[in-house]
Amino acid sequence: MVKVVVCGAAGGIGQPLSMLLKAQLPYGSVLALYDVVNALGVGADLGHINTGVKLETYLGDMKNANNAEIDKALKGADIVIIPAGVPRKPGMTRDDLFKINAGIVRDLIEAVVRNCPNAMVGIITNPVNSTVPVAAEILKKHGVYNPKRLFGVSTLDIQRAQTFIGELKGVDPAKVQVDVIGGHSPETMIPVLSKVHGITFTEEEIKKITHDVKEAGTVVVNAKQGAGSATLSMAFAGARFVFSLVRALNGESGVVECTYIDALSNGITTPTPYFGLSVELGKEGIAKIHPIPALSAFEQEQMKEAVVALQANIETGVKFMQGS
């Protein structure tokens, strides 16, 4: 049995993510929903899904010292997934989101420290390039940091690359093996198309897919015309990552996902301390980290551009905590 907690379960990502988890987590699992608004309604609704997943629902203000709902939700958690935060709107960059969302992540990770410091923690809250360092700094401050158990969920980037390759080449996207390394923003992600097994691309195809992967989030934001960002596809990607963690916790070998991690603290040399890489998951979290593959000339240029922006993103997260 595994206990999964969704922090921000009533939000645009949290609701469909919670539905997917309620529908597909293994029989006997516990799914705890937490939010500062509307959590009870979401829980009542999802409670009518006829699966053997036990549902718990908690509503409370994290700023209220007399409200222990977040502590109840997190107690005994194996996996904590955090989609909480404000969405990106037209014209907003991920940096515009940072101050609000960094504060939300800070408060939630403080609660993780109190209640389940050994849990696997997956951060969806944007900007992931900066919010993951925020989470790491809090865990370090309290002496409970295990870099093998902290993840930035960049699965949507891989999912999009699989989709675009599948559409272009007429193959099943779910079977396309492609890595997207670096960070989780247009300027920092690097689709490694040169290493896609069994598929070759023209130079123009590489440029198009790379562009489409990088700008996919903006396309969704603009298409929704102020009504939100990528919520449904992100929920699907978040659920995929949670299911991979569950499979690894249950002893399955060979579970591999790309994820944004503290490479430096995990003993891996990368161009920046935090970096998205292909990772094999295990019972303790990260079991094996695959190194950066040999990149094509085009991908090397993408890397040069990514490193500058990614380093600045990381410093933003660290400085936020230094000033807290």
| Rg | 19 Å
Number of domains: 2
Strand content: 15-25%
CATH homology group of the largest domain: Lactate dehydrogenase/glycoside hydrolase, family 4, C-terminal
Strand order of the largest sheet: 3-2-1-4-5-6
Q: How many strand elements?
A: 11
Mean of residue pLDDT? 95
Distance between the termini: 37 Å
Shape, per Cα inertia axes: globular
Q: Can you describe what's shown?
A:
The chain is α/β, with parallel strands linked by helices. The protein folds into two domains: 3-152, NAD(P)-binding Rossmann-like Domain (Rossmann fold), CATH 3.40.50; 155-311, Lactate dehydrogenase/glycoside hydrolase, family 4, C-terminal (L-2-Hydroxyisocaproate Dehydrogenase, Chain A, domain 2). It has nine helices and eleven strands. It has a six-stranded parallel β-sheet with strand order 3-2-1-4-5-6, with helices on both faces. It starts with a strand and ends with a helix. The model has no long low-confidence stretch (mean pLDDT 95).
